[in-house]
Amino acid sequence: MDAARYLSRIGLNVAPRLDRGGLETLQRSHLTHVPFENLDVYYRRGVSTDPVRSTAKIVDEGRGGWCFELNGSFASLLDELGYRATRLGATVVLDGPTDGPQPSHASIRVDLDRPYLVDVGFGDSFIRPLPLDDDGPHDGGTGQYDFHRDVDSITLRFREEGGWAEQYRFSTESVVPTDFDPSNRFLQTSPTTHFTSKPFATRLIDGGPDRVTLVHDRLKLRRDGKWTETPVSPEDWPRVLREWFGMDP
User: Fold this and answer.
1) pLDDT (tens digit per residue) in 156-195
2) CA torsion angle for 174, 167, 37, 124 (degrees, to 10)?
């Protein structure tokens, strides 16, 4: 990996310090410059769990991707920079357990002064490292998060008005990229997933928590905690994608 080119892709001239602050800088920079998007899935171009291919897509092609690509590439960057990164497998539980093979989501554990959960491939979620050795609640940069522990797994939760909402359940055991191959195939071919039905792209604005999200028919902006929406016609969609994400469909 050419770490300097990767850092430049996420808006950094040099690698930050090897500490929690540096890790947060990397996470927020990645979330700002590399969108969570499904265009290769939606247009049936195919995506890979191979971090070498994902890194080339992100760095050379100026694209984004979904969790297997984004967290796979980010973990490789962290390795190159000297962090102790462990790839984790998770089950998405936003609306109940995900259908299909598991694990259905890729995340990352980073060990520094203490273990942290880091993620650059889950859309609108936490944007700073969360200490894994403390159940919380923790300030995730976009709200309060905590960890609920079971016998063999940990569930990441987000505080909503009605209580704690589950996001994903994960194990602390290390996985390798090929462990995600069954879910990678299922999620990009199943007609029941939102990845295959409508195109989208989302990223932070200037390190967050402001965010821009483009879905199939509108552009959504979060500024100072408030969302606004603007309709986008099919004819204007490629232009808006280019304007806000620097990509073509």
Assistant:
1) 999 999 899 999 999 999 999 999 999 999 999 998 888 9
2) -120
- Radius of gyration (C-alpha) of the chain in whole angstroms: 17
Evaluate if pTM is beyond 0.70.
yes
- Are residues 36 and 122 in contact, defined by beta-carbon separation less than 8 angstroms? yes
Catalytic residue, from 30, 33, 40, 67: name it: 67
Which residues are bridge partners to 224 per DSSP? none
Helix (H, G, I), strand (E, B) or coil at 51: helix
User: Into how many domains does the chain fold?
Assistant: 1
Q: Answer yes or no: 134 catalytic.
A: no
- 11 vs 8: CA distance, rounded Å: 5
Side chain identity at 197, as an amino acid letter? S
Using the structure block, give the residue that is written with the tokens 């996001």. Answer: 167
Domain coverage including residue 124: 3-245
Tokens of 25: 């800088």
Give me the residue label for tokens 């932070």.
204
* Residue of 105, 124, 138, 179 marked catalytic: 105
Q: Catalytic annotation on 30?
A: no
Q: Which member of 40, 119, 124, 179 is catalytic?
A: 119
What is Dmax (Cα atoms) for the chain? 51
Cβ-based neighbour number of residue 150 at 10 Å: 8
Q: Is 119 a catalytic residue?
A: yes
Q: Rounded to the nearest 10 degrees, what angle do helices 67-81 and 51-59 cross at?
A: 90
CATH number at residue 21: 3.30.2140.20
